[in-house]
Amino acid sequence: MRLVIFGLTVSSSWGNGHATLWRGLIRALAERGHQVLFFEKDVPYYSAHRDLTTLPGAELHLYQSWEDLIPEARRHLASADVAMVTSYCPDGLEATRLILDSNAGLKVFYDLDTPVTLDSIRSRENLTYVGPDGFREFDLVLSYTGGKALEELKSELGARKVATLFGSVDPQVHFPVSPVEQYRADVTYLGTYAEDRQQRLNQLLIDPARLLPEKKFLIGGAQYPTNFPWTDNIYFVRHVPPSEHPAFYSSGRMTLNVTRRAMAEMGYCPSGRLFEAAACGTPILSDWWEGLDFFFQPGSEILIASNTAEAVQWMQLSDAELNRISKAARDRALDEHSATKRALELELILEETITSKAEPEIANSR
After folding, report:
1. CA pair distance 20, 9, nearest whole angstrom
2. Alpha-carbon distances, residue 230 vs 134, 169, 197 (angstroms)
3. What is the distance, to the nearest Å, from the Cα of residue 117 to the centroid of all Cα atoms in its chain?
């Protein structure tokens, strides 16, 4: 298939998770013989922190002006088997109109931020990627989030056909490596600061750090405020680029995952970093949300804590027990949550949608 995608960014991983996901998925699609063209607006925020300039096996097109892009975009859409626009695409509404007016075979929206999208719609907030008609005109709406989100995409935004395409990990990028002194810690946490995560972070990292002064805790991320409740045994790295994620994870005895409120309330919305850490062979401690056990088995593949006491308990497990859990999680991630696995799932979803779209046309021609 030839896929033409209008998205947020694949060239810069700064402050977003879309780039890492797309890199792995595009690589897997290209390895399976598909052609992918990714249109990305060249904005200063991402160009200043660009960590990828070419897509192996695919084509990356950076553009300055939407108006200047239109003729070329139309030309590529005319021969596209699949035309897709994603959440947070800077020119999402314009790309949507162009796709819907084109002769592309399948017209698809991929919402990588479904809980945020649905929250904003319910709050009547304007979104740069959802117009007044919602998703009614798309042949297919893909959602990074499963569970009840799928029905809400239909009821709230008029999606006709929906399917999940969860996050994934690229095993060629994320794998166990030798520990790096800069990232050595008993407990690591990788995440941009978010106010709606802070209560959980206090329970599962800040308070345990106070109770376990002999252990070292390390936070990697950006936008942390000056009044963040640091302790003497909590260390900080401002930005960990994707190329160093394996070293970051591999240097910690365990890593913490804390889910943003909208994602936790919606459920079935795994952070891509869960899969990354698992693929790097790192034991994961996480807060709980509905559907987590769909991806990893609590107790045997992932550790769950709902309060400080439980977090402290897990942080004192033996190396042997942590190694057993991390090995099981890595096996699960490589078997069920790899970029290649998601590429196969996407193929099946697209083929099924093509077939179901063609059936009414065949019936009407009789």
Report:
1. 10
2. 43, 31, 16
3. 15
Tens of pLDDT, residue by residue over 253-278, are: 999 999 999 999 999 999 999 999 99
* Residues 191-213: tens digit of each pLDDT: 989 999 999 999 999 999 999 99
Q: What is the mean pLDDT of residues 245-255?
A: 98
Interatomic CA distance for residues 357 and 163, integer angstroms:
15
Q: Name, in order, each residue with C-beta under 8 angstroms of 185's C-beta and a sequence gap of 6 or more.
A: 216, 217, 218, 235, 251, 252, 253
| Gap between the Cα atoms of 211 and 208, Å rounded | 5
Residue with tokens 């319910």: 122
Distance of CA 67 to the CA centre of its chain: 29
Judged on CB neighbours under 10 Å (0-12, 13-18, 19+), 97 is: middle
In whole angstroms, give the CA distance from residue 107 to residue 95.
11
Rounded mean pLDDT of 228-239?
Answer: 94
d(CA 174, CA 266): 27
Any long-range contacts for 63-71 (C-beta under 8 Å, 24+ apart)? 63/39, 66/41, 66/91, 66/94, 69/39, 70/98
